[in-house]
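Q: Hi! First time doing this. I have a protein sequence and I read that you can turn it into a structure. Is that right? Here it is:
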Amino acid sequence: MTNDAFTAPETTADEWIDVRMTDPEHGEWDVDVVVAGGRVEYVDLRIKPALCGRFVDCLLDDVDKDRAASILHAAASRRGVDLDVDRAGE
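A: Yes, that's right. Below is the predicted 3D structure, encoded as structure tokens:
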């Protein structure tokens, strides 16, 4: 078995997105992690629906505007959502 340990990434912010729980006692989100053989094999992150928008904001804070737009458009496309639709009437 190796002595691999988690450390801060050495690459640029555009290659990583950082997420922090600001108030663990408040239960902003919940993480289940499965560790097997000393390695993380599975991570399940659950976010309260009311906090989802702020969570996405947190993710996108680490990347520039073009990368943020690319992430949002890719996610919307996978869900069949058209981000270019005028939502002024809602």
